[in-house]
Design the sequence.
């Protein structure tokens, strides 16, 4: 029996897992996908929010500001890419300036450092490509960008190194309270635990409602994006937002931490919590935004789009995070309604949850907690001399597999063999960026498959895009 | 000490091989070919169908056979080449940085560089095709490599988007391997491929080609389960009510090729927005002196024979450049610009220096639409000097005209050569 089972290995679950792994306990994360960050955590803006947007006094506001402060330090400890590029909310008429003042006031109440309103001249100097309609902008210097996968991966790996077990492709079907413990029925048998932490993203309401009479409701709010080639990544330095609306922060234009550019997300509530498909009308809308004077005076060329994608926000009816022990279900903890700024808040959610759970179970801290982790080695960051030494030691670092992102075989092998190692094409992509470039894996697919097949000792026909039934090839030729 | 070569050729596909052989033939010994794949021959190695070499060798060869004709000679001539070697960087002063497993990162000095990197396929994102992102969506070339070189089947029930040549070839190839190709959808009102491929790869196998159709939805969370295609209007917008569903496990995309000019951009080679390839002069030299371009990195070709012919010219001129014979020609520089208008999308080359051009220079171009019973016309400034009738011209097939030096020399004040399509 486990002390704690965490449902969901998204960024929330991974942060909770990492913070709990500081304690002496027997714990496990169950995840229905084949990897960490395979739901909402893999398809979002990758923005580190400064915290001016959340309603003062809300848990969201508190954890956002705390999470922001934690992230910069964590990026060093756990070696994942972040960039403090600042955030701008652009007002395009006098009416919108009032909104900026409102946001500025919220920023003060929420304790967000350094936020101020810039005049047109000031902001145009900072971002010369802003729309000519710009009249003023709110500037938040602690805004940033992050690789959303690698935060979850880093937290998950570090938790794993500190003893946290992960069970992938394990879907929780039902939860029963059995005396002092919970029994989780899964597709791979029943798991028993003293405590449950529900970090199930868009499905957090389903699990909560299995054990509690105080029902919660989570709506999947879809956001679609267009992702552009790095050649147009320098349009803006900061992440540029419109003045927020009812459905969220609006369609932004921002660089990613890796130097691509994106336009998105939209916001549409959907019934089906698996509907991570993009839709024709929305892609059309995003295309119009990229072409027309939306935030940018420059037209963003559509022939630079490399992919489009959609993600689902776990929108809770009351629009605040729920981080609690469920009042009528002892030892069942929720981390629910974790929508934007959930990614930024996740380290703070992890710390808060770990505190609650450890107090509940009277856990003791480990004597030897490993607090640091090295990410996949990036040879491009080395000097020529260091790189040559590396290649001499391990020639795989001299072999480029993904020519768009210049990813070597050495990096792919590293991604496969590290803790919570990659088992599928998408999990390699998220760890190394192989296949994430402008050809979108056209050239490297067969070669990455070969490396996976060799390193994992599995056949080419067993290799999947993302676990489950997502095999890439159906058999050998001449077999049909 | 940095090692140096007179000519460094980036890419060991058909363009790089032909350029190397001609440069050698022209008297240059110090040549290095850098190839990122595990063998010479480039994309020809996965093109195991026949139809190559009709112009060059007057016989029908498969892709690997065609490539081997050149590889054999490169071996005979002992031209140096490196496989599994990626060019990481080039500079305007022609320092080439490459990397491989055995040597690591190496910098070499070139006197001349020939860009012969080829092209890549446009991915799904470039078309903004909506729907899910399951396994089973491949560019046609990736599927071709999987089937022909690795020996694996990408799927059994297939829908192909785009009628580029690789898509057409793969429709036949997968059919021969026992898969069921249900339909080829093409968003344009005409095919982007060669007529002979439509006949031999689709018609002969009863595979329907739906012109003015595109994919409007992809279904399937893990693996592709189906697609919806719809007819498009003249603005290429899907027409509501024309949707048709197809159950399938695989989608191949053959929606265009893009020259791979990441390296060219590093040294600010001037680019042509239409071809996405470098702007070159009559010698296939870019705006950077001593840097030449040929093959699909320059502009996407329809037939490899033309790639070889063009690349040989680049090789010859690079040799002239390093041997110092380029400016030795008697006539003074007289550069004219080629302009592509009225149905002609571009020309390669873009400028011609009449002083240093060879006796004849072939100008290749593509048209932007299907033209029946029309004329290819060439104007020297305002004077029409060529008016050649063609029964049919299509965007999928390259056209060419030949410029004659003697004739051009009769126009000492010539500024502009215009190539256009005329109805009469």
Sequence:
């Amino acid at each position: 029996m486990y002390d704690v089972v965490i449902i969901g290995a998204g960024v929330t679950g991974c942060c909770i897992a990492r913070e709990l792994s500081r304690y002496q306990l027997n714990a496990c994360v169950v995840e229905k996908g084949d990897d960490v960050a395979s739901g909402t955590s893999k398809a979002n803006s990758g923005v580190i929010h400064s915290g001016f947007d959340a309603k003062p006094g809300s848990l969201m506001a508190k954890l956002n500001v705390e999470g922001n402060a934690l992230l910069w330090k964590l990026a060093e400890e756990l070696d994942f890419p972040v960039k403090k590029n600042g955030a701008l909310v652009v007002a395009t008429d006098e009416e919108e300036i009032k909104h900026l003042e409102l946001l500025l006031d919220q920023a003060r109440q929420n304790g967000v450092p350094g936020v101020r309103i810039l005049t047109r001249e000031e902001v145009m100097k900072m971002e010369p490509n802003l729309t000519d309609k710009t009249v003023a902008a709110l500037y938040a210097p602690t805004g940033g960008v992050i690789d959303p996968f690698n935060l979850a991966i880093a937290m998950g790996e570090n938790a794993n190194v500190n003893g946290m077990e992960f069970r992938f492709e394990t879907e929780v079907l039902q939860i029963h309270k059995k005396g002092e413990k919970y029994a989780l029925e899964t597709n791979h048998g029943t798991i028993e635990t003293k405590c449950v932490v529900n970090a199930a993203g868009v499905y957090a309401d389903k699990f909560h409602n299995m054990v509690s009479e105080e029902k919660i409701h989570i709506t999947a709010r879809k956001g679609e994006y267009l992702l552009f080639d790095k050649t147009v990544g320098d349009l803006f330095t900061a992440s540029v937002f419109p003045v927020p609306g009812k459905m969220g922060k609006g369609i932004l234009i921002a660089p990613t931490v890796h130097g691509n550019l994106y336009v998105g997300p939209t916001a549409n509530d959907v019934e089906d919590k698996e509907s991570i498909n993009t839709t024709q009308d929305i892609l059309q809308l995003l295309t119009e935004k990229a072409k027309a004077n939306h935030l940018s005076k420059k037209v963003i060329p559509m022939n630079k789009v490399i992919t489009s994608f959609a993600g689902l926000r776990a929108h809770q009816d009351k629009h605040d995070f729920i981080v609690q022990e469920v009042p009528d279900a002892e030892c069942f903890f929720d981390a629910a309604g974790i929508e934007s700024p959930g990614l930024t808040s996740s380290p703070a959610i992890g710390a808060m949850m770990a505190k609650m759970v450890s107090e509940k179970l009277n856990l003791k801290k480990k004597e030897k907690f490993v607090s640091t982790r090295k990410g996949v080695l990036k040879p491009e960051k080395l000097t020529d001399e260091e790189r040559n030494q590396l290649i001499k030691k391990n020639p795989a670092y001299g072999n480029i597999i993904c020519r768009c992102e210049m990813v070597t075989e050495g990096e792919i092998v590293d991604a496969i063999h590290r803790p919570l190692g990659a088992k599928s094409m998408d999990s390699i992509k998220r760890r190394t960026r192989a296949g994430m470039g402008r050809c979108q894996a056209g050239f490297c697919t067969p070669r990455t498959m070969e490396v996976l097949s060799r390193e994992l000792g599995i056949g080419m026909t067993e290799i999947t895009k993302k676990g489950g039934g997502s095999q890439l090839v159906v058999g050998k030729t001449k077999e049909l | 000490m940095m090692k140096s070569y007179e000519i460094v050729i980036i890419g060991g596909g058909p363009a790089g091989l032909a350029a190397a052989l001609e440069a050698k033939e022209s008297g240059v010994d110090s040549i290095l070919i850098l190839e990122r794949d595990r063998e010479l021959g480039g994309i020809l190695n996965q093109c195991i169908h026949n139809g190559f070499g009709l112009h060059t060798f007057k016989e029908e060869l498969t892709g690997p056979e065609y490539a081997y004709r050149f590889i054999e000679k490169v071996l005979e001539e002992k031209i140096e080449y490196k496989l599994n070697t990626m060019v990481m960087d080039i500079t305007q002063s022609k320092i080439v940085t490459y990397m491989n497993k055995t040597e690591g990162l190496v910098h070499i000095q070139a006197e001349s560089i020939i860009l012969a990197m080829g092209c890549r396929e446009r991915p799904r994102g470039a078309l903004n095709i909506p729907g899910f992102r399951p396994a089973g969506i491949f560019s046609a070339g990736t599927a071709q490599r999987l089937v022909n070189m690795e020996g694996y089947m990408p799927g059994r029930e297939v829908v192909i988007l785009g009628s580029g040549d690789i898509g057409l070839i793969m429709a036949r190839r997968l059919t021969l391997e026992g898969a069921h190709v249900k339909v080829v959808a093409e968003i344009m009102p005409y095919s982007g491929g060669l007529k002979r491929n439509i006949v031999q790869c689709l018609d002969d196998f009863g595979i329907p080609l739906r012109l003015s159709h595109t994919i409007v939805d992809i279904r399937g969370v893990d693996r592709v389960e189906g697609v919806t295609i719809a007819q498009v209007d003249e603005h290429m917008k899907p027409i509501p009510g024309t949707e048709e569903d197809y159950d399938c496990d695989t989608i191949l995309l053959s929606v265009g090729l893009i020259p791979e000019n990441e390296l060219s951009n590093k040294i600010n080679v001037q680019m042509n927005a239409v071809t996405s390839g470098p702007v070159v002069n009559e010698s296939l030299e870019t705006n950077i002196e001593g840097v030449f371009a040929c093959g699909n990195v320059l502009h996407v070709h329809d037939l490899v024979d033309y790639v070889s012919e063009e690349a040989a010219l680049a090789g010859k001129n690079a040799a002239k450049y390093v041997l110092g014979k380029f400016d030795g020609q008697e006539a003074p520089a007289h550069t004219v610009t080629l302009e592509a208008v009225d149905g002609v999308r571009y020309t390669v080359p873009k400028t011609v220096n009449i002083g240093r051009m060879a006796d004849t220079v072939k100008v290749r171009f593509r048209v932007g639409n299907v033209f029946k019973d029309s004329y290819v016309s060439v104007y020297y400034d305002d004077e029409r000097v060529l008016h050649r009738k063609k029964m049919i011209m299509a965007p999928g097939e390259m056209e060419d005209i030949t410029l004659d030096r003697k004739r051009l020399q009769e126009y000492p004040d010539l500024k502009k050569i215009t190539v256009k399509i005329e109805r009469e």
Notes: The mean pLDDT of chain A is 96. The longest strand of chain A covers residues 305-316. The two ends of chain A are 47 Å apart (CA to CA).
